[in-house]
Design goal:
ten-stranded mixed beta sheet; about 20% strand; 2 domains; TIM Barrel; binds D-mannonic acid; about 35% helix; about 400 residues; binds magnesium ion; alpha/beta; globular; Enolase-like, domain 1
């Protein structure tokens, strides 16, 4: 029997902060899992090293489901991003080990490929509409079949989504939370207009996505959705904060624009109403924030019963280890929708060695046994942790709003 013999929690900052879990078994197999929670990294690192690891040593590494239940029910305190990210890291590392032991890519253990490649989307952006449109052209010309478009809003230039075009960006760039601004009326006037400019310049030759980033009420989001219905968005993302899942009933009744949410949610119970009442078209829960392959698979299977497809989060604060695990599910589930793919910085790829590749608008997962991820521990030492915060947003009157 292969027991869990050693667990290392590695915190490093190659391009941005990452937390990575390394599990080593008694017969020397190694598995990797992403444990990064942007802006709260050390909370997961401590949860793992101080609470999970001491209780994990000696467990049978092959019993992934049992370990999952042990960590979930055994914590007593249920759910939440820190707990579910920590469990996800253990889960993905154990699937990595299981694949290596079987000599198979994890997707083979999950039933084999259901498609040739994983459709991905990239982030086009700009400090004005012209810059954003040029960035859209860059993504189209580099082969993307799906492109997310975000541009600065006049009057609130530093709001989420607008950054230097062409650059790899990470919103967690402040040594203290940066204060950005928000103004829904300005957004409702300008964002539909710049999305229309995308269709006017490029037509319908690619899927067009947009991230509303949790900043509207259901009624405002209904107005937004109605105003872009003829633009045939692939989705409008996070239109409304989704802790109140029932709030999406009002939104759903107001527009036919497809809806995606879930990247800040982390368990099947947090998306249960959204899915079973078909209030969304895509569920964005990610493998590294929703309990790993074991739990995300359950979410996607529930979603399949209700015509809801996957659309997992994949920003640069989810490491290449996370994306490698995500692809194992993306390539196998029947109700796959799309995978977010923000390319990581070169220094990140010095530490994380991956086997996935971009081809003609799709990601092709590694054929290597396990998840196809390697982590260069020596290289990681060159990039020490550097605490960073996500921004906050305030309205003109100073009210703290959603960023
Ligand atoms: C965004 C993320 O990619 C997205 O859909 O919502 O960039 C999000 O802002 C970051 O992951 C937060 O850490
Ligand atoms: Mg988002």
């Amino acid at each position: 029997m292969d027991r869990i013999e050693r667990c290392d929690v590695i915190v490093c900052s190659p391009g941005r902060n990452f937390v990575t879990l390394k599990i080593t078994t008694s017969d020397g197999l190694v598995g990797w899992g992403d444990a990064t929670l942007n802006g709260r990294e050390l909370s997961v690192a401590a949860y793992l090293s101080e609470h999970v690891v001491p209780a994990l040593i000696g467990h049978d590494a092959s019993r992934i489901g049992d370990v999952w239940q042990f960590l979930y029910r055994g914590a007593y305190w249920r759910r939440g991003p820190v707990t579910m990210t920590a469990i996800a890291a253990v889960d993905c590392a154990l699937w990595d080990i299981k694949g290596k032991r079987a000599g198979l890519p994890v997707y083979e253990l999950l039933g084999g490929k259901a498609r040739e490649g994983v459709l991905v989307y990239g982030h086009a952006t700009g400090h004005d509409v012209a810059e954003m449109l040029d960035d859209v052209a860059r993504y189209r010309d580099s082969g993307f079949r799906a492109i997310r478009a975000q541009a600065a809003i006049t009057g609130i230039p530093n709001a989420y989504g607008a950054h230097t075009a062409g650059g790899v960006y990470d919103p967690a760039d402040g040594s203290l939370p940066a204060v950005t601004n928000w103004d829904t009326p300005a957004y409702l006037e300008q964002a539909p207009a710049y999305l229309r400019a995308v269709r006017e310049r490029f037509g319908f030759s690619f899927e067009l996505l947009h991230d509303c980033h949790h900043r509207m009420t259901p009624n405002e989001a209904g107005q937004f959705g109605r105003s872009v219905e003829d633009l045939r968005l692939f989705w409008m993302e996070d239109p409304v904060p989704a802790e109140n899942q029932e709030g999406y009933r009002l939104l759903r009744s107001r527009t036919s624009t497809p809806i995606a949410t879930g990247e800040v949610l982390n368990s099947i119970w947090d998306v249960q109403t959204l899915i079973t009442e078909q209030l969304i078209d895509y569920v964005r829960t990610s493998v590294s924030h929703s309990g790993g392959i074991t739990h995300l698979r359950r979410i996607f299977d529930l979603a399949a019963l209700y015509h809801v497809r996957s659309g997992s989060h994949g920003a640069t604060d989810l490491s290449p280890a996370s994306l490698s695990a995500a692809l194992a599910l993306d390539i196998t589930i029947p109700n796959f929708g799309i995978q977010e793919f923000m390319e990581h910085r070169p220094e990140t790829m010095e530490v994380f060695r991956v086997g996935y590749r971009f081809e003609d608008g799709y990601l092709i997962p590694s054929e290597a046994p396990g998840l196809g991820i390697e982590f260069d521990e020596e290289a990681a030492k060159r990039f020490p942790y550097d605490r960073k915060y996500l921004p906050v947003a305030r309205l003109a009157d100073g009210t703290l709003s959603d960023w």
